[in-house]
From TrEMBL:
One of its GO terms (molecular function) is acyltransferase activity. GO terms for biological process: poly-hydroxybutyrate biosynthetic process. Residues 1-20 are annotated as: Disordered. It is found in: Cytoplasm. It is an enzyme of class 2 (transferase). Residues 116-287 form the Poly-beta-hydroxybutyrate polymerase N-terminal domain. The gene is phbC. The keyword Chloroplast does not apply. GO terms for cellular component: cytoplasm. This is Poly-beta-hydroxybutyrate polymerase PhbC. Keywords: Acyltransferase, Cytoplasm, Transferase. Its EC number is 2.3.1.-. The keyword Cytoplasm applies.
Length: 607
């Protein structure tokens, strides 16, 4: 009875409910004061990021401004037409909103703006305030896009960069990225009486403290995963270790295996266990289950002592040493090899070095999302001009290595809405904990690059395209793409924003091999490769005619459902000889040193 009276009293006196909420509000305010002190401390320890690595050189914008001014003088009608079109749409929307409001309707006017998942909350469509903000933002974005796209007087590279970085500015200014104009965040704050904002501030400060004062949003719950426990769990042994890498040999899961072993070289920009996340999507486990003796390289993480490690070291002490070790362990003359991304590029360089030296270690090579022709560098090319590369060169000259922070930041901005803004909204505005997502956990587990190697790769390959043109100097030779003569199977991904598939295709075309297979998988740089048959996702296409242009190849390609793994497995089996009794990891000369996944994947360096 007392409870009912109290409830009725509060309903009759709204101020009673407000008074009841005051202790919680006061607690949150006190918590915010404490968090503010932590915030100031984190910001005061902010790392110094070179100006050259924070954005394109000012010359890009000044040239664009000059071009726009010249166009305005020389062709004023075009500018006037653009502005009148923009003004007309903006004013018409304002008039429609005013008319709806004048009729006493709390409803939004007609909304013909395109669908955008950032604006999924129904209030963006129905509420006049939020809909007005959304429509005005979309009109501004369209006007900016049109102005940049139709700008004349810039070369193709400059125009691509201007389009990319103008999109970054437009995306950053979306009303969804600000608390006062985000209905999801405002609703959550009211429903939780401010708790969501306090949790969001806690999340933000934790990210700042973990990243030397840089705001790098956590994409995954780091406490949910442990490498070697619930990631990278396929059984195996480390059978070799040097200053460059650990070599893992995986335990067989079949009684018989193919004679010719397989070795995978993952990119050293990230850690190898992207191929062994969980049993359900592990390419490593799948390969072992198909009856192959599998070795995988786990690269050492660079630090200041890696300053002078270059591409030649990767070829000599990495690839050639790994080939020799696997040949001896398995008592075979040849191996099959896989290179993923930059590791595929370096595998191709190693093949040319071996040809020059008369070494015949490799029976076939598979290239995952690999660039060997850098004439078109795709979306990532906006970060490969001298302004950025000069900044990287200065950074590695001082530090001796390229911190993983810079590579991670670069790749994140290629998908900023998915990898920066939406995660930040969930974490900082809604106060949600990062998801327990294995792929995103791996994405945040970056590695550093040796200083010398980073510059050789960026200057000689990415910028100057020497491997596909004049020759790239490595290991005492001038490596040329035409000297890659072993059988090749290349897998590229249609929406890859790091290794554009058309460039990958063009590189395969230039190789000297008479036995070439090209597979185009759906999706992107990671999901297109980590695409197990059980998921039945994405699909892939093939075309035996590699003499045509990329567009011609795609137009004539045959579409297949599901994963490309089984097709590649059949191709690889034909290159792998007869079946023999399964091999256990190691040999008399190379006894097991430690269980997989080894120690290099768990820390920066083994001393």
């Amino acid at each position: 009875m007392t409870t009912d009276d109290s409830t009725n009293s509060e309903s009759r006196d709204p101020s009673a409910a407000h008074r009841a909420a005051l202790p919680k509000l006061e607690k949150n305010m006190k918590r915010i004061q404490d968090l503010t002190q932590r915030l100031m401390g984190a910001m005061s320890n902010k790392r110094k990021v070179p100006q050259d690595l924070q954005g394109p050189a000012p010359e890009l914008y000044s040239k664009a401004g000059t071009v726009a001014f010249q166009e305005m003088i020389q062709n004023p009608s075009k500018i006037i037409e653009q502005q009148i079109g923009y003004w007309g749409k903006t004013l018409q929307h304002f008039v429609d909103a005013q008319q709806a409001f004048g009729k006493g309707e709390l409803a939004a006017p007609v909304d013909d703006t395109p669908t955008d998942r950032r604006f999924a909350n129904p209030l963006w469509q129905s509420h006049p305030y939020f809909n007005f903000l959304k429509q005005q933002y979309m009109l501004n974005a369209q006007a900016m896009d049109k102005a940049v796209t139709e700008m004349e007087g810039l070369d193709d590279s400059e125009k691509r960069r201007l389009e990319f970085f103008s999109h970054q500015i437009v995306d950053m200014l979306s009303p969804t990225n600000f608390l006062a104009t985000n209905p999801d965040a405002l609703t959550k704050a009211v429903e939780t009486e401010g708790d969501s904002l306090v949790r969001g501030l806690e999340n933000m400060i934790a990210d700042l403290e973990a990243n030397d004062g840089e705001l790098v949003v956590s994409l995954a719950d780091k406490s949910a995963f442990t490498v070697g426990e619930n990631l990278a769990t396929t059984p195996g042994e480390v059978v070799f270790r040097n200053h460059m890498f650990e070599l893992i040999q995986y335990a067989p899961s079949t009684e018989k295996v193919h004679t010719t072993p397989l070795i995978i070289f993952p990119p050293w920009i990230n850690k190898f266990y992207i191929l062994d996340l969980k049993a359900q999507n592990s390419l490593i486990k799948w390969i072992v289950d198909q009856g192959f003796t599998l070795f995988v390289v786990s690269w050492a993480n660079a630090d200041a002592s890696s300053r002078d490690i270059g591409m030649t070291d990767y070829v000599e002490d990495g690839y050639l040493t790994a080939f020799e070790t696997v040949r001896e362990i398995c008592a075979v003359k040849k191996v099959n090899a896989v290179g993923y991304c930059i590791a595929g590029t370096t595998l191709s360089l190693s093949l040319t070095v071996m040809k020059e030296r008369g070494i015949d270690y490799v029976n076939s090579a598979t290239l995952f999302t690999t660039l060997t022709d850098f004439s078109d560098r795709g979306e990532v090319g906006v970060f490969l001009n001298d302004d950025f590369v000069d900044g990287i060169e200065a950074e590695v000259k001082e530090a001796g290595f390229l911190d993983s922070y810079f590579m991670s930041k670069t790749f994140s901005y290629l998908r900023s809405n998915d990898l920066i803004y939406q995660p930040a909204i969930r974490s900082y505005m809604l106060g949600e904990a990062p998801p327990a997502f294995d792929l995103l956990y791996w994405n945040g587990d970056g590695t550093n690059l040796p200083g010398k190697m980073a510059i050789e790769y960026l200057r000689g390959l990415c910028q100057n395209d020497k491997f596909a043109t004049t020759g790239f100097d490595v290991a005492g030779i001038s490596a040329k793409i035409a000297d890659v003569e072993v059988p090749i199977c290349a897998i590229a991904c249609e929406s890859d924003h790091i290794a554009a598939w058309k460039s990958s295709y063009q590189g395969v075309q230039k190789m000297g091999s008479k036995d070439k297979t090209f597979i185009l998988s759906g999706s992107g740089h990671i999901a297109g490769i980590v695409n197990p048959p059980t998921k039945k996702k994405y699909g892939y296409c093939t075309n035996d005619d590699l003499s045509v242009s990329p567009d011609g190849w795609q137009a004539g390609a045959r579409q297949h459902e599901g994963s490309w793994w089984p097709m590649w497995g059949d191709w690889l089996a034909k290159k792998s000889g007869k079946k023999i009794d399964a091999r256990t990891p190691g040999s008399a000369s190379y006894p097991p040193l430690a269980p997989a996944p080894g120690s290099y994947v768990l820390r920066a360096k083994v001393v």
